[in-house]
Structure formats: C-alpha cells, structure tokens
Records
---
Amino acid sequence: MTENLTPAGSRVVVDRHGDDITLRVPPVGMLHPGGTGTYSCLGLSFLFGSAVATAAFAAAWFWEVKGARDMWPVFLILPVFWLAAVGLLLLAINMGRRRAALAVVGEKLLVIQTGLFGSTRKEWRRDQIEDIRTGPSRVSIEGHGPVLALQIYARQGGQFGILTGHPEAELEWIATMLRRALRRAPESDEGTNEREPDSSRSSSIG
C-alpha cells in the first residue's frame, strides 16, 4: 500500500507541516463489524432478554402464578445478565466513540486518544520505538479471535495498543505512514537511508 493511497472508506485526516505529520482518526462508530458492532448487538440482546425475563417473572410473582414463588432464586441471577448487558454496551460505546490523533513531530511520536472514560496521552522518542504494526488487542470476540489494533512496540516498556476495532487496511496504512515519517527524522539523513519493507507486519523503526 502506497503512502498516498488512503484505504477505501477511511475518514482519517492527514495534516503535513514539512517532515512532520498528524493523523486525525475519527470514531469508528458503534455498528462497525470490526468489533463494536458485535458488542453492540450482544449488549442489546442481553438487555432485551433481561428486560423480558424480568417482566415475565415479575408479572408471575405479582399475579401469584402457581410455582412462581418457588422461583425466587431467578431474581438473584437476573442482575448478572443486566450487568453483562450494560457492560457490553459501555464497551461498544467506548470503542465506537473513541477518537485519536497520532503525530510525528521532529524526533517524537505523540499519541492522544479520547473516549468515554477520558483521555490517554503517550509520547516516545524515535530511538525508543522498535516497531509500529497491526496486531491483536486485548479485546476478543468468541469465534473470531482478538480484535485488531494499531500496536506501538517500545524497545523498553512493552507495547501500547490504540484504534481497536478499526478496519485492518486502515490500521496497516496508518502504521506505514507513521513508520515512514519517523524514518524521515533529521538524523536518518546524516548517515543511513533505510528502505521501507513491503509488509507492515515485519518492520523495525530503528
């Protein structure tokens, strides 16, 4: 994928100032099939099922249907389903409403992500970054495996995932844009001229 070929359907905005670059990534939305849509559907299903079950058992209890009084343990279980429904919906909303900005400014990579539960800001110097590529996140969908995210690997300090649930083509394109911008840092012009690998999954910044 070439640097200037934006993936089809992508709404990422690219700002350039000399060798510096900023990528503004809008929310992916709650109905995207990459993960948010699945969690939204699951959450709504749990919510609807919990509401129907609660109403049915409450009506049976109120109207003193035969045997209803012996089913009181059900009312202890129903809150679990309500909590699961709310949790899945909150996860979908947070994933779907998160927006991010990723910028290469001089020798630094800056990342800001804002979501339902606040903002996260990270920064690394160029020489601190081992690689940037698409990889599995900590979010998983049963039957489909982990949801993909953009992974930033530091030489020391592990990895940082961002843009969970965005389309794979968009994630690979963003990873390529950031790696190339980091390779255009001033010090790379003084001695080395590194070539961009063909695959976004097997590259190194350093």
---
Amino acid sequence: MIYQKNIGFRGFIRIILVFSGLQAFFCLHLFSQVSREWVQRFNGTDNRFDIANTIRLDVNSNIYLSGTTASAGTSTDILALKYSPSGVVLWQAVFNGYSGNIDQANGSFLDNSGNFYITGFTSDTNDILKVITLKFSSSGAMLWSKVFLPTGYNQGFGQAVIADNSSNVFTCGYIRRPNRSYTLLVLKYSSAANPLHSTRLTLSP
C-alpha cells in the first residue's frame, strides 16, 4: 500500500507499507529537498534556560508549544506558546504556580476548539510537588488550573493529558508515598474543572 501526502514545507513524503505475514515494514522517501521556512526562539525573563517538550498543530496549522521556562524572581514556570503558520507569536502564557518555586510541564493536548491543556507538576509553599492540570483558551487565557495530591503522599507528577468530545479532561501520572512506593494515577475533570473521578494503582518499591 502506498500513501503520498504533501506535508506543507516544499516537499512530498511517501510512506510505503509492505506486509509479509504478520510483519509490516515502512520507509520514508523525500521527493524534494526540505527547506527551512522560519525559526523562532524564546528567551525567558531570567535569561537562563527554556525547554520545550510538546508541540501540537491545529486545523489551521497554528502551532502550540508547552515547556518550562526560568523566570526572574522564581525558579521555573510552565510555559505555553502559540505561533501562526508563518512563525508569528500569537500569544504566550506563563504559569508561576503557588510558591514561586518549581513548576514544570510534562504533557499537553489540543482539542478541536483550540483549547490547550497542559499537565506536569507544581510546588506548593512547603515545597511539596503536586500534579497540576491547566486549561488555556485558543486566545491564551488560562481558563482554570487544578492541583491534586491526596493525603499520605508527598510527591505528584502529571505526565499526559487528553480531553474527550464532551470536554471532560483526563490527566494521568503518578504519586509517591514517603516510603517511596509509587501509585499510578488517572484523574477526570469536567469541562468546568469539577473533579469527577480518580483511579489509583499502587506499585511496591
């Protein structure tokens, strides 16, 4: 089976699938040389380090990035950026958390309405790391943020986030007890950020 698609940056790519029994192989072939169309760089206010870790593309080819930035007067903050198809920065948003300490993005999701969801972790005023889930509108306004860490645990980390067709939001990650036992975690929020459900699976150290 051969599938050919214009990938939108002055080149064509062909994906060839070859099936043999239960095995499948694929190869990529560029018909023309790819050229770089633009480069954008982001430098946080503390001029130290900025790390992007997810990228999403909407139906209009706008680009959404999530990551972590070092901001002046804080440790690290969660960063969200939106670029136009031509590389113009449409908006940027920074989440500073609740203590001016460590905040980090690990996963993101973009829904069909352009709402951008990010999960990771945030530090509270006692330096306890907790699972954080953020929702931004398509124009960059933060619609809500939710923090989760149940009693008996001393660390929490969000790893991935997704939303369904009803805009319910699912965050998965893990939480840790002081004895270093880890618990897998799945959270469900309504579109208005009301907690609907949580599921945990504990793993022994």
